[in-house]
Structure formats: structure tokens, C-alpha cells
Amino acid sequence: MIPVTSFEDRKVALFGLGGSGLATARALKAGGADVVCFDDSVARVDAAAGEGLTTGDLRTLDWSSVEALVLAPGVPLTHPVPHWSVDLARDAGVEVIGDVELFCRERRKLCPDAPLIAITGTNGKSTTTALVAHLLKEVGRDVQMGGNIGTPVLELDPPQPGRQYVIECSSYQIDLAPSLDPSIGIHMNLSPDHLDRHGTMESYALIKERLVAGSKVAIVGVDDKMSSAIADRLELARKPVCRIAGEHELTNGIYARHGRLMEARDGSQSEVALLGGIDSLRGGHNGQNAAAAFAALRALEVPAAEIASAMKTFPGLHHRMEVVAKTGRVLFINDSKATNADAAARALASFERIYWIAGGRAKDGGISSLDEYFPRIAKTFLIGEAADAFAKTLDGRVPYKVSGTLPQAVIDAAAEAAEDGAQEIAILLSPACASFDQYQNFELRGAAFVDAVRALPGDGNTQEVA
Questions:
Q1: Are residues 326 and 429 in the same domain?
Q2: Same domain membership, residue 279 and residue 165
Q3: Which tens digits make up the pLDDT trace of 34-60?
Q4: CA angle in degrees (0–180, nearest 5) for 179-184-189
Q5: Are 216 and 207 contacting, i.e. CB atoms less than 8 angstroms apart?
Q6: Is pLDDT of 300 > 90?
Q7: Nearest to residue 154, comparing CAs of 163, 142, 165, 139?
Q8: Could you read off the pLDDT of 317-349 as tens digits, one per residue?
Q9: How far apart are CA 112 and CA 154, in angstroms?
Q10: What total number of domains does the chain contain?
């Protein structure tokens, strides 16, 4: 835990008592703050009180004595409307911040030289975060990884000399971190997502840009136009910028091409790592992830040869292009984290012959943007609320079956793939949807896929990979 001492002996209101909210409340209390916690869920409030935290309805609080409102990232700050606690804080002139902001203040106070690598983007940020942390550990660094991935940021070990932080930041967290100042900031890409919370694509992009704008060194993906524009603006502001790409050759920067990671300087090109044969870094999207990680470690002065060697041992990220089993020519791929069409596109682009499991609670736009990948799909097996809508998109273009549930889709896909003579076949769960119609989160959906694969009748030739 990182005790938050920046509010010692001062009153702080906190709203939102989920996982990160509870961790933040504990850290504030440990640092000596007078923190009052609340949530719209009575059960969460009772649970917090049960472990000794002070709780109380923030609507009855004397806001004149409050120094800050600490808001959990899942609570609306601006859209569709500000949460009522935000309105109360703003009416009283009280700043509204989140856990990443508290972490940044503690880092500056305790050990400002402790490197902070902060990573954002619509897609790829979790894999890149895990990859950067893995590489740093492999080369012998003291690494703490958390934020929007896994461990809440304030549950990490406290800053100290030589300790390096690799933090995934969602747009919600950046929006609540006005002084976010990474040593190295990484922005991966932009595509429509979370617009219900940010209003417009332009507002969403501006929030993402703040992470790299506040960094000492900016690493920016330029595979999409809006992100490329961010890189241009940062360079005009004289910010050190390293461009990265997984789909385009660059004249300056790090990019992936044909399974090789390349470094370009003033038009000259050199290979710095071989990605071919590393299943966990398969596909163009992972080329961009690898380029970002390589650039980050080079900024920390890790030798290129050490980075290339460490990449070979990266196990991959759970629920993102995760090879969970192999039966002969058939790979079973858990890409449950692909909760929108853009993320699913990255998986569909990685295989030539696909039995695709898709569906759930659809995002705006559905799967119509994925039509360029339809020729790769032997058949689609549809699940969840989106099944009928997706069927209309696929009708006459891709064979499909409405399987309804994920376990049934696995059974159906495995049966048909067994009759396919292709050299390599992927049974791919890449839903292009949120999970909330059938599963509480994408992790549980991914676990259900793994369970369904393991439950398939076999002849002893199935190799469990993960």
C-alpha cells in the first residue's frame, strides 16, 4: 500500500467503493486523512464501515471543511451528466480527483526520480502495460505494475529509488488526474469508445492526449489519424516524441513489419527484434504493442539486444489473443477483452482461417466495420443480445449460426472446425461486444470460454497452452 500523506489531517470526501475506491479509502486513512466514504450501494457502504472506514451520506456533509472529493473512475465526471457528488463538490469549490492523481502527488513527494511509465489508448494498453513490466523484470529491474490493469495503483509498494512503475490509465483515470506527469507516457491509438462518458470523439481524444502531453518523453502510436495528429502537436510544442506503428513503415521511430521490429532514424532502417514465432506477440496490433514497449525500455537506456531477448519469454495477457489450447491444426484463442469492433479487428487480422465466436451487448456501430476481414471467416457463431443484429450484418456474406450461449458456440465451432482441412484454424472468441448481458465482466466470459474448451470431448491430442 502507498499511504496518501498529501492529505494528512485534512478532510477528504470519497465516492465510489468498488475495488479501486476501497483501496483509495484505505490509503487515505493510512496516510492520516480524515476521509468520509460513500456509495450509492448500501451493501458497499456497509462493507466499508465493517472494515473500520468512516462512512456517511455526502449529501449531508459540510463541504466547507472538505479539501477534495476523490471520485472512483467508474463514476461519471461530466457525461452523460455529472454525478451528484461532483455537483456538490464543484458548488463548494472543491477539487475533484482520482486515485492516479493521489499516486502522482505521493511519487513527487517521496521519490520524484522513481520512473513512471504511464500507458493509455483505446486498444492495446493492457497488453503493452504487461509487456513493459515483463521486459523490465526480465532485465532485472524492480517493477510495480497496476492501475487500470490488475492491482489498484495505491495498493502498489511505495515509491523508492530504483523502483519503476508501469501504470495503465483509462480515460476516466486521466480525466481525474490533472497533474499526471509520467517519466515516459505512451499513447497507443484512438477509436470510438466510452463516448457515453466523454460526449464526443474530440473530447475523448483530448483526455488521452493529456497523458503524453504531461510526460517527459512521449511515445505515440501513429497508425490512426487522430493519434498521428497528437504526435504532430507534441513535436510542435518541442516535446521529445517517439513515433511507433504496427501497420506503417516510418522514417523516424519504431515500427513492426513482416514479423520484424524495425528502428528508423532519418530514413535508415535496422532490425532490432524478431517477433516472428512469438505467439503472444502475433498480429499487427501486437507489432504496435511491441514497438511501444521497445521504445519505452530504450528511453530507460536498456540495451536493444536485452529487450529483444526478453520479448521471447512474454507469456501474453489473459483474455487478449491468448492461446488456451491446441488440437492438431486447431488453435483455441481467448480474446474476450475485445469488447469493441476495433479490438476484434486486431484478432481477425491475425489468422487466415477463423471460426469466430462473437456477440454480447453490442457497442455503437456493431460489426459493420469488420467487413474487410469477412473473407477470413469460415463461419461465425453468435451469442448474446447482439446475435440478431450481427446476423443481419453477416447475412449473405459470412455463414453463421446463432448458438446463443458461449459453451454451445464452442461446441458448434469445434465440431465444424474438425471437418476443415486448412493448415491452421483458429476458433476465436473475439466478441466485439461488452459482456454484461451474460457475464459480469470480460474476465468471467474468457474463463467460461476456457472451461468450455476444456470440456470438449477429446482423444488426448489437445494440448492446454494456458
A1: yes
A2: yes
A3: 999 999 999 999 999 999 999 999 999
A4: 90
A5: no
A6: yes
A7: 165
A8: 888 888 899 888 999 999 999 999 988 998 999
A9: 16
A10: 3
Per-residue pLDDT averaged across 187-200, rounded? 76
* Sign of the four-CA dihedral 213, 215, 216, 219: negative
Dist CA 27 CA 217 (whole Å): 29
The answer on 263 and 381 residing in a single domain is no
Q: Could you give phi then psi for residue 97, rounded to 5 degrees?
A: -135, 175
Q: Is 316 a domain residue?
A: no
Same domain, residue pair 280 and 229: yes
Number of helices and strands in the chain (H, E): 15, 22
Task: Supply angle C-alpha 79, 211, 36, rounded to 5.
Answer: 55
Find, among 394, 465, 395, the residue nearest to 426 by Cα: 465
Q: Which amino acid is at 160?
A: Q
Tell me: pLDDT of 8 over 50. Answer: yes
Paired sense of beta strands 253-257 and 241-245, if any? parallel
Residues 91 and 107 in one domain: no
Whether 285 is covered by a domain: the verdict is: yes
How many other C-beta atoms lie within 10 A of the C-beta of residue 56?
13
Question: Angle of helix 304-311 relative to helix 125-138, nearest 10 degrees?
Answer: 110
Q: If you search the block for the grid coordinates 506477440, which residue do you land on? A: 281
Bond into 240 cis (ω within 30): no
Q: What pLDDT does 193 receive?
A: 62
Q: What are the residue ranges of helices labelled H in 300-331?
A: 304-311
Q: Are 3 and 27 in contact (CB under 8 A)?
A: yes
pTM of structure = 0.83
- 3-class SS of residue 191: coil
Tens digit of each residue's pLDDT (9 = 90 or more) over 47-96: 999 999 999 999 999 999 999 999 999 898 988 899 999 999 999 999 99
Domain assignment present for residue 441? The answer is: yes
Q: Provide the domain limits for residue 159.
A: 101-311
- By CB atoms closer than 10 A (0-12, 13-18, 19+), residue 42 is exposed
Per-residue model confidence (pLDDT) at position 460? 43
Residue 438 in this model has a pLDDT that exceeds 80: yes
Amino acid at 139: V
